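Quick illustration, no need to memorize.
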Amino acid sequence: MLAACGDSPALSIARSMKSSIAPSEKSNITAQQVADIPYASLLAKIGSGPLSTLILGKVEGEYLHWFSADRAVIVTRNGRVIKTAGLPQNLSSSRPLDADPLDSLANLSAPAYPHRRQVDISPGGIYGAILTLRLVPVGTETIEILGQSHNTVVFTEEGEGDGLKWSFRNAYWCDRDTGFIWKSIQNYVPSAPPLEIQVGKPYLG
């Protein structure tokens, strides 16, 4: 998915595993393959593309850096994508202007949660654009990831980019008890299909 400068240890490990877990048209990544990886991992795809496996290669406080075998990087914070690298167009930065409701999903009780973020997108020369967002709980669903069932509360998040002619809808499947986000569909730049993420093996640090 991405091009980074130099090889970090995590990137080297991811590249060494490419032959055994590389994405295919059928995206047949198995639970055993993910279990055999000694690191936290994500399954991710863009739009209708095949799933790729990303492993956790760097932790900076609440910021988790996930590396793919083909040098892509996705950075998340509490389940939200806040940066990408190595894609045709990247989310260079995403900063909260209000409290992010994803930080406290297990304790939310209101019918809707409006909030704003400021983003930079490159290439494209988009800096400091304001996203107006509204997170809404829409129901419950039991989902399955690599054969493991998770009872979740589903949230949708309507978004609009001021001055960008960009409207979108994200979705999050969070654990009913803990609020942990097991699955999400997130629009990260105007020019690309949404990014779908499933947690194969969660980070327990």
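The chain has a mean pLDDT of 88.
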